[in-house]
Description:
Layout: H1 5-12, E1 49-51, E2 59-68, E3 71-79, E4 85-89, E5 95-99, E6 110-112, E7 118-120, E8 129-130, E9 137-138, E10 141-149, E11 160-167, E12 174-184, E13 195-197, E14 203-205, E15 210-215, E16 218-223, E17 237-240, H2 241-253, H3 259-266
Antiparallel strand pairs: 1-16, 2-3, 3-4, 4-5, 6-7, 8-14, 9-10, 10-11, 11-12, 12-13, 12-17, 14-15, 15-16
Helix pairs in contact: 2-3
Amino acid sequence: MKLSRMAIALALGTAALPGPAANAEDSAVANGRYVFAGMPVWPDNGIAERELGDGDGTFPQNMFVEYTKGKWHAWVIMVNTQGPAKALDFFSGEVLENVKVESPGGYNDWFIDAQGLKHTDNTDIAFHYKDPRPGGGLGGISFDKDTLDSEAKFRCASLSLDVSQRLSEQGDQILWSKVPLYRKADSSPKCPEGVWDSLINTALDLRDGTLLITGGKYIFRVREFDMAPVGSAPHLHVIEASEVRRVLQKASDHDVTDIGIYLTKQLDLPSL
């Protein structure tokens, strides 16, 4: 979690601030990093899903916001310990190949593109980020708060689904419990089409009541209020946890031989 950029700027003193400027970028504090850009205005392009990596050996992880030349960018970095990293601008869909990061496989809030230009978390606003450690939360949503398991057989892996929850402001009431299902790649030859998963890896608060969340090879933009996608997200299926629990219990009672196929049919999901 980052400190307020405004507090940092004030600590530098007014003598450190530049003179009048024509735009927000010219109003950066003396260290040249933080830009007073105001609150973000994100494009309303109807897209709430992107892909980066294969979801098995390479996947989206680090995310940060950059403001440059009058435009906002929500960058997603693909981690790759065996090769060059990539960066995706979520809203435009642009992918930058062969970017350089400081810590391959670790946390990065900046990268250098192939032209040598540095892209960094540069605004005075704190865009909070959930790292890939299990659990945690952001925007009032607690990720992976509970787990739904099945005793039914599965041809290539056991089924364990993570549940996300939203609590009341006082934290004493669960407002909803949901399972954000998506198809996850699986390297097992027994399961080439993948498996259902709901683990949320990382998340970024966009400061407009929405979040970017990553799972497998996907990045989804969802509302904090109900976790519904903000636009088209054909590979995300947000299901009430009680309904998933009911289906899994029914599968155990009926000696289902393939829980993946059963879950797909019972929840009316697209085929794996």
